[in-house]
Amino acid sequence: MEFWRRKKSEAVDAEQVEAAGEQASRRSTALATRPIPEDALILIPLRNAVLFPGVISPITIGRASSVAAAAEAARSGLKVGFLLQRDPKADDIAPGDLYRVGTAGQVVRYAGLPGGANHLMVQGERRFRVVEYLEGWPFLVASVAWIPEAKGSGTDIEARFLQLKEQAVEAVGLLPNAPDELADVVRAIEAPGQLADMVANLLDVKNEEKQEILETAELGARLDKVLEHLGKRVEVLRLSKEIGDKTKKEFDSRQREHVLREQMRQIQKELGDEEDTAAEIEELKKAIEAAGFPEETLKHVRKEFKRLARMGEQSAESSMLRTWLEWMTELPWKASAQKEINIQEARAILDEDHFGLEKIKRRILEYLAVRKLNPGGKSPILCFVGPPGVGKTSLGQSIARATDRKFQRVALGGTHDEAEIRGHRRTYIGAMPGNIIAAIKRAGSRAGVLMLDEIDKLGAGGFHGDPSSALLEVLDPEQNGKFRDNYLGVDFDLSRVMFIATANQLDTIPGPLRDRMEIIQLPGYTEEEKLQIARKYLVKRQLETNGLLLDQVSLSDDAVRAIIADYTREAGVRNLERAIGSVLRNAAMRIAEGAAEKISIESGDLHAILGAKKFENEAALRAATPGVATGLAWTPVGGDILFIEASKVPGKGKLILTGQLGDVMKESAQAALTLAKSRLNESLDKWDIHVHVPAGATPKDGPSAGVAMYLSLISLLSSKPIRADVAMTGEISLRGLVMPIGGLKEKSLAALRAGIRTVMIPRRNEKDLEDIPADAKAKLEFVLLDRVEDAVETAIGKLPERALAA
Ligand SMILES: Nc1ncnc2c1ncn2[C@@H]1O[C@H](COP(=O)(O)OP(=O)(O)OP(=O)(O)O)[C@@H](O)[C@H]1O
Ligand SMILES: [Mg+2]
Catalytic amino acids? Predict the structure, then answer.
């Protein structure tokens, strides 16, 4: 597929060669003695090409009049004008059949070939417009007016020129067969008009469109036209390259597997003897009878097996069929006897594996109780949502352990292709079942716990079908009793599988999928909870991993607290566990070296082992200057603090916004400024206000930054700093009311992690305070806001009179 190409070897003007050509050229030599006037050009009509200035192009001609024209041009050294004809099929050309604007060029090479075809190599030079056709030659001649080459400059032209150059270089890179030098040629062009012409020549668009570009003398308009066409081509090229790459990659890996499988079979055959194959067939037969297929499926499998038995060993289909039969017989079709769920035991196991999480464990036990009472019933699908490292995956494992079921995980992150979930048809080279069936086979049970990990990172449906619609079928209790994997080609019963999904964030889960699941949020841990988790689980596990005995190394609570506060800043405990691991490995080394027998690690030792503190009390450092407010944000990896910084520069009262801003946040900033202006009597007409929101915030989370933006502006304009230990969240209305926000729990934990003492929240979020862990609540003071003035009073204090309007 070449959407944009250089028609190099092809004859640009594919004229049918007429036998009359040669005769005509002889006749014309005799006639062409009459001189051509100064302001006139010999014309050659082109059926399906547009010649541009600056372009060298091969042209084939055949019509008698064209051959005569070319011969005369070659003889006299005169330039020739090339004009596109309106109807490419027309043979006899009258002046009205041609466009009036064309390009004059020099014929640099002329070769008459046997059979009458004539090849020209033409270099396009200047645009012209036909003024009047002249009579008296065996070819077309017209007096012409030159169209001067537009010389434009200025930033407008420059910008478009640069953009065109960039896109053209990209397009050349995307072309499968473009010569490398082409990009260099494009880069070297310095005249915008010339670049536009050159790109227009290369574009694979209709001739009428090229003609239109040729006729556009004005530089800006010409650049725009070319840019528009090129933009579209580049899109298409990008897409086609993406498809090509993806298909190729997929095909390669599948084919590789297929080839390896084949080789393995050959080797096995070499090693064994003929009887082995017979034995194998016999074994397969036994496996089929023992597999426990449903009746319909059994019939189908038996039929396929018979086909295999009749087939020659060597045939390609036989290996395909055999692989399929192996898959079929190895799948757990039978419902194995399931141990009854014991709620007491399950509770003990959940408690054993995880600290805290009381609400969540209770919900899990309820879920298990329902399953126990009604094993065949349709239970909801649980979906654990929360930041990394808070225990989503490990809770799933724990549920499997608590119910004595097999655990398997299917990673959905980056799944773009429906076939990854549902498999490829058996006839496809190297086809395999999808990852759901593959996981069931690994588990060896169709009543295990199947974790659908990272369901929020499921790729959008693309060229190969939508994975989320396939997943919907998997999770739908009405349909999943008859799940059809393309590879198996028969129904498989998934209704007994306990599906549990995990996600970092909710918004990116496709709506229909989200509706099908029960969402359980894990917001993250407080410092105290982390300490407990470390003491009860992480330290023990890391001691074991590093081959240490329990009494060889001890880690003081202070040391753990210091690791939590100074070396990790996360909602979960994954980095904490990693850091504990490094500390213990350091101790293990010292013990192994014989430096000590027992080591106890205090917080003072950490610097030597883990290096300098990674997190300082940033809030205190940043917030000392007026105009800086500490906001709270919700992100998929837990809550976070962010600094909103306002400053003013001489200007005209504009609001400049930079940094990580979504549309909502821009509106929020505008509202904050309007509000601040209406509260201050100082005129802002001579200043531009600049508000910066640093990276790290989720642009979508804009609304909750309204209060912080307002405070940063008030602080800036009144030159009074905001208290460093205060953080805030809340949206504002134009009348100064503070509106409620989401994610309070995550935000509070983030504030605590960052050393904040006072958190200002909308009064309408008061009810959410009950979800906040007790030890966080004990350490934070919550100030409830009705109006923005409440926030000013708490965080800035009384404003000087001057700054307050009535
Ligand atoms: N409450 C807890 N008690 C004990 N250990 C915990 C607790 N929470 C998390 N952990 C431990 O933290 C580690 C990380 O947890 P896990 O792998 O389940 O994270 P996750 O939530 O699945 O994260 P991700 O989103 O990155 O997949 C595990 O080793 C887990 O056992
Ligand atoms: Mg996980």
Answer: 704, 747
